[in-house]
Design a protein that fits this description.
mainly alpha, 16 helices, 74% helix
Length: 322
Amino acid sequence: MLSRTADHLFWMSRYTERAECTARMLNVNYETALLPQSASKAQEGWMGLLSISELIPAYTKRYGEITQEKVLHFMVNDEDNPSSINACLRAARENARAVRGALTTEVWETQNQTWLVLNKHLRDGAWQRDPGQFFEWVKYRSHLSRGVTLGTMLHDEAYRFMRMGTSLERADNTARLLDVKFHAVDADFHGSVRDSRRATPESDFYHWSAILRSVSAFEIYRKVYRDVITPERVAELLILRDDMPRSLASNLRQVVENLKAVSNEYSGETERRAGRLLADLRYGRIEEILATGLHAYLTQFLDRVNELGSRISRDFLVPVGH
């Protein structure tokens, strides 16, 4: 496959997934902001959301004070913010348009229709009247895009690069979410001393359940653990559980599988590093991770995932002069 085509497919999927992840975090933060709380606590929530995408400097330079209204505009409609829903879905559509011949009609029409309807939402201000409904729409369009890809695309190299883009982006976002949300509780979480048999304080319950809801894991948590929500189990579910769709382990497994399917003469070291990272997740224990500190672990994980993305670009997506 031409590296240019692979590049467009890879980034089309990454941008679609990034838009969904942004919508998920905004939706949970918006709903949490409706709960009784102090103004400073509400502001911390919006600051944490900006921190997940490392956007606090860019935001404060343009908007100054952190408020719900300004953060929502910045993360939904600001074309100069590369992580905004507007910018992500525009980039996804442009990448799809560049490789229409490699896509089925259904996949292209899904991407194009998403962009057209998004513009309508942004022009008439519908998203501001009901932000929650708008965020659900963004999530739905991302689900639809993945479903149409799975159901209509030949499972060839084009499909593999699209799946790889989705999995890498999702792993990155889940790790960032965990890092920021646990950091809000403890600078470097090593585990809590609370007796898991005791009732979880109400403020803790809302904090940890918000994390789970942002990755559609609240019901999964109840099914797996059938007990009160504890931070250690939240971390275990979203890091090590291979059967949890948005966990680090699940997405790294998919990266490794798709890398193997498209391997070339240059990608041996990239495959080795991806396999090593997956092995650390597959055979890791949450007690060992927390013993060294969750922040330190997730920082290292993000560094390794970003390096993996750079190596994939070098091996497959950027034309090489060999």
